[in-house]
Specification:
- Strand 6 and strand 7 form a beta hairpin.
- Helix content is 45%, strand content 16%.
- The protein has 2 domains: 80 residues, Arc Repressor Mutant, subunit A; 187 residues, 2-Layer Sandwich (Beta Polymerase, domain 2).
- The N and C termini lie far apart (100 Å).
- Helix 2 crosses helix 4, helix 6 runs antiparallel to helix 7 and helix 10 runs antiparallel to helix 11.
- Strands 4-5-7-6 form a 4-stranded mixed β-sheet. Strands 1-3-2 form a 3-stranded antiparallel β-sheet.
- It has 11 helices and 11 strands.
Length: 300
């Protein structure tokens, strides 16, 4: 009887507890889930996609619970294989970008804005770079979109700023090819107007005109279209014309802009070159009626 009892005790010692079975089972299931979602993500990358919505994952793998998917995405995020960009939207980080931990916006922006169902275009210094004016590399990325206001996204040291405007001027937008498809980018002349209008966002009037000086090479006199004049405030066009004529010395472009504004009966007002600076004692003895209350210095 003693032997029997001892033998039974030894067997019981060898049998894993129920909790151990459950724990191993859960770990195995989590591993299977991770492998399956990894395969789904690999298929996305193979098709040239760099972002995905969690809803799409639910639709394609309906057997996984929301909790299971959240757990797997959390682990993949910790491993640096994905980045949570926005509520329910993630970026894939392929091996070539693993060291940075984030993708260039040009690879994911179009798909992301389609996910948000928002019109957009790449603007300011980033758009200028597409047109060959990359004198100063921007530290931030600028995107124009409509209202309501979209908060900036900042991940792994990369900040994307969204500037809301009343209307996206479709005739002034170009499609540029990227590794991930296409990207909406402001054409050269709209980029020039935006640089003047939003000069504070790019570091001030001097930096804006420095970029404009290079960008002007990509602008033709015929680019001052009705669509541009309709979209851009007259005060911005006045400052642009003044900068082209007196700082960048593109006389032909300045003359063409002035003629187009006259043809459309645009009324000129006395306006300061630098809006936030004192105007008293300064003169506007130029055809653009711009009060020269600051000196423009172009960084060569």
């Amino acid at each position: 009887m003693e032997k029997q009892g001892k033998y039974r005790i030894d067997i019981l010692r060898k049998v894993p507890k129920c909790g151990t079975f459950r724990k191993n089972s859960l770990l195995s299931m989590a591993k299977i889930n991770e492998i399956s979602i990894n395969q789904w993500l690999d298929n996305l990358l193979a098709r040239g996609a760099f972002g995905f919505a969690k809803e799409a994952l639910h639709q394609d793998i309906p057997d996984y619970s929301d909790i299971a998917i959240k757990r797997v995405l959390s682990r993949l995020s910790t491993k640096g294989k994905i980045v949570s960009l926005y509520k329910g939207y993630y970026l894939l980080v392929p091996p070539q970008y693993a060291s940075k931990g984030i993708l260039p916006p040009s690879l994911y922006l179009d798909a992301f804005m389609k996910y948000l169902q928002r019109p957009y275009y790449v603007a300011l210094l980033n758009a200028a770079a597409f047109h060959g004016a990359s004198h100063q590399q921007p530290q931030e990325y600028f995107v124009m979109t409509d209202f309501p206001v979209l908060r900036p996204t900042q991940k792994k040291g990369l900040k994307v700023n969204y500037i809301s405007i009343k209307e996206i001027p479709k005739p002034l937008i170009e499609k540029r090819k990227t590794e991930a498809g296409y990207l909406n980018v402001s054409n050269a002349v709209l980029t020039a107007c935006d640089l003047i209008q939003f000069e504070r966002r790019v570091g001030g009037i001097n930096r804006a005109v420095t970029v404009l000086n290079e960008l002007a090479e990509a602008i033709k006199p015929s680019d001052f279209s009705e669509a541009l004049l309709h979209h851009t405030p007259t005060t911005v066009l006045q400052r642009l014309g003044f900068a082209l004529e007196t700082a960048c010395f593109y006389q032909e472009l300045a003359d063409s802009l002035y003629e187009k504004m006259a043809q459309h009966d645009l009324k000129f007002f006395r306006i300061p070159l630098k809006a936030a600076k004192e105007t008293k004692g300064f003169f506007s003895d130029n055809r653009w009626k711009v009060i020269v209350n600051t000196a423009i210095e172009i960084d060569e």
